[in-house]
Amino acid sequence: MEPILTRCGYRCDLCLAYKPNVEKNPANRQELSDGWSKYYGFHLSAAEICCDGCMSDNPKLIDQNCPVRPCVIEKGLDNCAQCEQYVCEKLMQRLVVLEQVKRRVGAEIPEVDYVCFIQPYENKRRLDTLRENAVK
User: Fold this and answer.
1) What is the pLDDT of residue 135?
2) Which pTM does this prediction carry?
3) Which pLDDT does position 1 carry in this prediction?
4) Which of 7, 20, 31, 77 has the most Cβ atoms closer than 10 angstroms to its Cβ?
């Protein structure tokens, strides 16, 4: 699957909640429910975990209250990296930085957990790279 970047820089193609990934392996829903609880402190039942991705028109989204998607769409941008106000308060609410997650959980993160629960959402580094490449 080609990389699919969200408005805030998450990677749908790597996310276990992304509908094509759920369809391939429905058991991932419980794994993701547990991982999100452990690393981010929010709880969703496995049955609630399935997302069309925010780049779709009228998508079914996990995060119905995301402040980033409507902002980026209103500004006519593809993602936050293109915004003059990068990094704004809205994006700050959705930033995922590995070192911050490690501090929050107070431990190193096993590689398998990193791949499943951190890497798809580790958007700060991804957006920074997009901004740097746009300047070149």
Assistant:
1) 72
2) 0.91
3) 67
4) 7
Q: Is 20 left (phi over 0), alpha (psi -120 to 50) or beta?
A: alpha
CA 24 from chain center: how many Å? 19
User: Is the backbone of residue 58 left (phi > 0), alpha (psi -120 to 50) or beta?
Assistant: left
Helix (H, G, I), strand (E, B) or coil at 11: strand
- Cβ burial, residue 45 (10 Å; 0-12/13-18/19+): exposed
- Does residue 132 contact residue 103 with C-beta atoms inside 8 Å? no
Look up residue 41 and give its two tokens.
Answer: 């402190």
Asked if 121 and 15 count as a contact pair (C-beta separation under 8 A), the reply is: yes
Contacts of 98 (CB under 8 A, 6+ apart): 109, 114, 118, 122
Token duo for residue 77 = 């941008």
CB atoms within 10 A of CB 71: 18
Q: Measure CA of the first residue to CA of the last residue in the chain; give whole Å.
A: 27
Structural contact between residues 42 and 36, judged by C-beta atoms closer than 8 angstroms: yes
CB burial of residue 49 (10 Å; 0-12, 13-18, 19+): buried
